[in-house]
Amino acid sequence: MNKSELVIALAKKENLTKQKAEEVINTIFDTMSDALLAGQRIEIRGFGSFIVREYSSYTGRNPKTGESISVAPKKLPFFKVGKELKKIVDN
Predict the structure, then answer these.
(1) Which domain CATH number covers 9?
(2) Can you give the residue range of the structural domain that contains 44?
(3) Confidence check: pLDDT of 35 > 90
């Protein structure tokens, strides 16, 4: 499912216009992004949690040339699945 399919599903389920459903979805995603940028953890019970993980710099290797390269430190979003969602998907 992509974002536009999610918008259509929300519009149908809650009897909203596609424009209003897209507004709701965008507000949720924007709020989650802002929280992660602020270093906050997002937890949705039964679904999972989102955090930002920090990775140190390291020396990597270019697989084509074998040349060593320096990889800068970075921050990436990380999702940890909740127990309930894990059970639903596994069955």
Answers:
(1) 4.10.520.10
(2) 3-90
(3) yes
